[in-house]
Amino acid sequence: MRIAGSVVLLCAFTAVACSPKKQPPVATHSPLADSADQVMYGARFVLTDQGLQRAHMNADTAYFFDDNTRMEFENVVTTFFTTTGAKDAVLTSRHGTYNSRTNNMIARKNVVVLSEDGRRLTTPELIYNQQKNQISSDSAFVMTEPNRRLEGIGFRSDPNMKNIQILKGASGIARGVSTEPMVFPAPSSPAPSSTPKR
Question: DSSP of 72-118, one letter per residue?
């Protein structure tokens, strides 16, 4: 009886001693690194058009392909500027692609654009055309500002979203705007003349 109990206890200790230990976390490895011509960490770029600074683009990691004409980015922050050099808006996204042949940047996943005066746009994917200084998308989007909310599918806009064209499915809410029909008072008839007729 004692021998059987000792064997069970010994098996229990052996199972605990042989159980796998918790492994340390493994750093994520992007598959892009295996095929990239070059990899850059803490990448910074200045986007210009005819010598005019249009945007600064920063990324945690940049992968270069196709003789360095196509760049894939992770954790992108792009700051847009006006023609006078003032900060206009900031775009953030998880991933991005920049093509130096077309001068277009595509932002993907958790795309957010925040203007300097408080407009905020979210969409799954967005294209920045450097020559036109235009952001656009064919995906669903939501734009909010202090007194208004717009949503739809697809848009074209300047980076600070002051002039936005919604392609389809536009809807929105505006606070403090009356939807009741305007009622104007009837014009008053002129007062009768007090001058006696002759």
Answer: EEEEEEEEEE-TTS-EEEEEEEEEEEEETTTTEEEEEEEEEEEETTS
Give the whole-angstrom CA distance, residue 91 versus residue 89.
7
Identify whether the C-beta of residue 56 lies closer than 8 Å to the C-beta of residue 74: no
Give the burial class of 7: count Cβ atoms within 10 A of its Cβ; 0-12 exposed, 13-18 middle, 19 or more buried: exposed
Q: Is the pTM of this model over 0.90?
A: no
Closest-CA residue to 128 (of 61, 57, 58, 41)? 57
Band the pLDDT of 22: cuts 50, 70, 90: low
CB atoms within 10 A of CB 99: 15
State the Cα–Cα distance between residues 124 and 115, nearest whole angstrom: 18
CATH 2.60.450.10 fits 31-174, yes or no: yes
| Distance between CA atoms of residues 90 and 77, nearest Å | 7
Nearest residue to 97 (alpha-carbon basis) of 137, 67, 57, 143? 57
Element (H, E) at 122: strand 120-129
